[in-house]
Design brief:
13 strands; nine-stranded mixed beta sheet; two-stranded antiparallel sheet; cytoplasm; 300 residues; Rossmann fold; alpha/beta; iron; single chain; 4Fe-4S; 36% helix; binds adenosine-5'-diphosphate
């Protein structure tokens, strides 16, 4: 029996891709797609040729996070062309193929696997320095498929995104163990939504009366600071939103023997950048989270 013809085609496609990175998470909603999107923006800003492949078939959020909602994939004689944000940042997602973005994709495993295979076989990426693969949460069919299909061409490793809560960390252990079982190196763990940080002057201030009513005193506080203590205007206020008394992702990473890449705070500006499909590195738009993300990316 000869080699699997699909794998031969995939190997040909991947021959022009230098590095392949998977972005994983144990749970949904922890910021995996946000991280994949910002990682891709950052690599592209460093002048690398970047491809972002969204294989979260049931919940593709990548088109929106890259500002590409409503775009279509085109077919050329070389294959499916990714949708380009910039000439060096191409994106492929099932989100581009859905006639109605509000419609749920209810597909069973084999059909999902079929699409992932088709993405790998048919998308013409050209020369890439990095292919970032945004996987769905958990360890299911899609994960096994992508690993099996890319195994022969080599996967550089996986980045696991989590929040500091125990419920999310428990699932990270499963992700790490999945990677170990399938032989994918864990490049590291990112703790996202690690406390809330924003400029003090962006907060709202409330005064609670004795009867328990809240009154908005934001203007009064800001006026007071401006006049009496202007040096406080530059402060960034941070608060531990989630309980990380267990040591969070850093301790867990140490215990599991995988690198810890760093913490990214909950930053309203990063949420806005993701909603608007923008990079948070341009124009200092995410003053709080961008430096943290940058440090993480530099470690890779
Ligand atoms: P996942 O891919 O893990 O399901 P998303 O990346 O879709 O999660 O993130 C869920 C929501 O949280 C999105 O609205 C996103 O903009 C927001 N978000 C993610 N990380 C942060 C952060 N560090 N600060 C603020 N909002 C964030």
């Amino acid at each position: 029996k000869g080699p699997d013809p699909d794998l031969v085609v995939i190997a040909e496609r991947m021959a022009t891709v230098k590095h392949k990175i998977l972005v994983l998470s144990g749970k949904g909603g922890v910021g995996k797609s946000t991280f994949s999107a910002q990682l891709s923006f950052a690599l592209a800003a460093m002048d690398f040729q970047v491809g972002l492949l969204d294989i979260d078939i049931c919940g593709p959020s990548i088109p929106k996070m890259l500002g590409l909602e409503g775009q279509d994939v085109h077919q050329s004689n070389l294959g499916w062309s990714p949708v380009y944000v910039e000439s060096n940042l191409g994106v492929m997602s099932v989100g581009f193929m859905l006639p109605n973005p509000d419609e749920a994709v209810i597909w069973r495993g084999p059909r999902k696997n079929g699409l992932i295979k088709q993405f790998l076989k048919d998308v013409y990426w050209g020369e890439l320095d990095f292919l970032v693969v945004d996987a769905p949460p958990g360890t299911s069919d899609e994960h096994i498929s992508i690993v099996q299909l890319l195994e022969a061409t080599g996967i550089d490793g996986a980045i696991i995104v989590t929040t500091p809560q125990q419920v999310s960390l428990i699932d990270v252990r499963k992700e790490v163990s999945f990677c170990k079982k399938v032989g994918v190196q864990v490049l590291g763990v990112v703790e996202n939504m690690s406390g809330l940080c924003q400029p003090m002057m962006d907060f709202k201030f409330m005064r609670m009366s004795e009867t328990g009513e809240h009154r908005d005193v934001t203007e009064w506080v800001k006026e007071y600071v401006r006049e009496k203590a202007p040096e406080l205007q530059n402060l960034i206020a941070c608060s531990e939103v989630f309980d990380s008394s267990g040591g969070g992702a850093e301790k867990m990473s140490r215990e599991m023997g995988v690198p810890f890449l760093g913490k990214v705070p909950l930053d309203p500006q990063l949420c806005k950048a993701a909603e608007e499909g923008r990079s948070c590195f341009i124009d200092q738009k995410c003053g709080v989270s961008a430096p943290a993300l940058k440090m993480i990316i530099e470690k890779l």
